[in-house]
Design brief:
Structural class: alpha/beta
Helix content: 25-40%
Number of helices: 18
Distance between the termini: 26 Å
Strand order of the largest sheet: 8-7-13-10-9-14-15-18
Largest sheet: 8 strands, mixed
Shape: elongated
Length: 487
């Protein structure tokens, strides 16, 4: 076993943490500051121990006292310290000091950087595992005015603060090393963040690249890499294409979620959204100003021919973002797992908009055989909280009958269970649907589009056909970069 591991390590050619820090320390141009709050100066410690740190570290500091921290970086509006806003202030403040205090005349070739983290490790009662924001602002050319930046959010899975601190230190080294030596391979750089770290110890659930050297990086695609690399279970991005932290976006929110392939988004999808949203916000328990609408795509829905087609993913994302919607990519094939995820962050009302086929599948026992409690365990998690299903009807192609919650057919063993949830108001029919569009399915629109047949434009929302034509969406092949070919 040892020999196999050794061969794998040689094949991967992963530098040790000491080798990484020493390479940076011995580079006469790389020079910057370390600001670490909440988990010790774990990253800076690696650079000090490897030797030659005086050539790299201008300053290393930790402002643990809240008053000291506020005096240096300012007071956050929400009074919190482990936030993205705090991290950005730390990066900005320290980089400004670097530029003010280090003379360019004396050091014309130096590449400045500011590394920072603000972290809360596991609490004494071990109820909260801990999380943190980690980032670096840096330049790859001494004349570079607009700086590059990488920001990520992590969640600890270890049950001891010391272990979390050690993990954070290694992650920080990997991030700094990657920023200077792997910036041209952002996808691989994400993987390298786990060098010498077990994926079971920390989760990376958000990352954003910005700056001139990342101008061609689409952060939505980076989000997808987090899912593909098993770094997290779900990611979210907004209409602007930038990723944001699900925990922050969902915190104490009323949530309305629509699951689909959206390949492409159709008039039916939008009718489902608008009609269910109207019902949702009329609920007395729902505050419209505190409501988050999510268009969710599962990882299995992204797979074509067994593999994820990244261009296809980007095309779907482009259309949903153009309509101003928030998108979630998740690994939750079963609905109860999605609801369980939402319940981590909110106790408010949750609504799921779905079609008849999806509801029938929910009551299919085969999807819950892996659970010790079977379908009852899943339903306990699905319907335990303030959850409601908004059911969009379907027209039976053979009989012409409109299928609703009143006449759908579930397995005979599930009939009584279905009735229980139906008559307890957990399933609500969307009754003011548009009967003129019930024949529309994404797969039919896509087939017409690919085969250049007439009629697909009428199946999609206003403005979407023109975007598809202008951008050649769903009809172009993914242009592979050199990095893709290497991978």
């Amino acid at each position: 076993m040892a020999s196999v591991l050794k061969r794998d390590t040689v094949f991967e050619n992963i530098p040790s943490i000491k080798a990484k820090t020493l390479r940076i320390n011995l580079n006469p141009d790389i020079y910057g500051t370390f600001s670490e709050i909440g988990a010790g100066q774990e990253t800076a410690r690696h650079f000090f121990r490897s030797g030659g740190a005086s050539g790299t570290i201008a300053k290393a500091m930790s402002a643990y006292d809240k008053d000291f921290s506020d005096a240096i970086y300012g007071i956050e509006k929400d009074g919190r310290y482990v936030t993205q806003s705090r991290l950005k202030k730390m990066l900005s403040h320290e980089m400004t000091l670097m530029e003010e205090r280090i003379s360019r005349e004396t050091h014309p070739d130096r590449l400045f950087f500011s590394y920072a983290n603000t972290v809360a490790t596991i609490d004494f009662s071990k109820r909260y595992k801990g999380h943190g924001w980690v980032g670096i602002r840096f330049q790859l050319d001494p004349n570079q005015k607009e700086l590059d930046e990488i920001i990520l959010h992590i969640r600890f899975k270890q049950n001891e603060a010391r272990l979390q601190q050690e993990t954070l230190g290694i992650l920080g080294v990997n991030l700094i090393y990657g920023a200077f030596y792997k910036y041209h391979k952002p996808r691989k750089m994400l993987k390298y963040l786990y060098d010498h770290i077990d994926k079971d110890t920390v989760e990376i659930d958000m990352v954003n690249f910005s700056g001139p050297n990342f101008k061609d990086v689409d952060n939505r695609l980076m989000s997808l890499q987090l899912i593909r690399n098993d770094m997290t279970d779900a990611v979210m991005f907004g209409p602007d294409g930038n990723n944001f932290l699900p925990a922050s976006a969902l915190y104490k929110k009323n949530i309305l979620a629509l699951r689909g392939s959206f390949r492409p988004v159709t008039k039916v999808n939008m009718d489902m959204f608008h009609k269910s949203y109207d019902i949702f916000v009329r609920d007395p328990a729902v505050d419209q100003e505190n409501t988050m609408v999510i268009f969710e795509i599962t990882l299995s829905n992204l797979k074509a021919s067994g593999e994820i087609d990244e261009q296809d993913f980007m095309d779907r994302a482009e259309l949903l973002c153009s309509l101003g919607h928030t998108v979630m990519i998740s690994k939750f094939q079963e609905y109860f797992k999605l609801v369980e995820y939402f319940n981590r962050y909110t106790k408010a009302k949750i609504g799921l908009t779905m079609g008849v086929n999806n509801l029938v599948d929910i009551f299919d026992e085969k999807y819950y055989r892996h659970l010790s409690g079977g379908i009852l365990e899943a339903f306990g998690k699905l319907f335990f909280k303030e959850l409601q299903v908004y059911l969009y009807p379907m027209k039976n192609a053979e009989t012409g009958q409109i299928m609703t919650s009143n006449n759908i057919k579930v397995h005979p063993r599930m009939k009584e269970l279905y009735k229980f949830f139906k008559y307890n108001g957990k399933v609500m029919d969307i009754i003011d649907y548009d009967p003129e569009i019930m024949h529309i399915f994404s797969r039919d629109a896509l087939k017409k589009l690919i085969n250049n047949e007439e009629g697909w434009e009428e199946m999609l929302p206003k403005g979407i056909p023109q975007i598809i034509k202008d951008e050649n969406l769903f009809t172009r092949k993914l242009v592979k970069s050199k990095e893709d070919k290497i991978e």
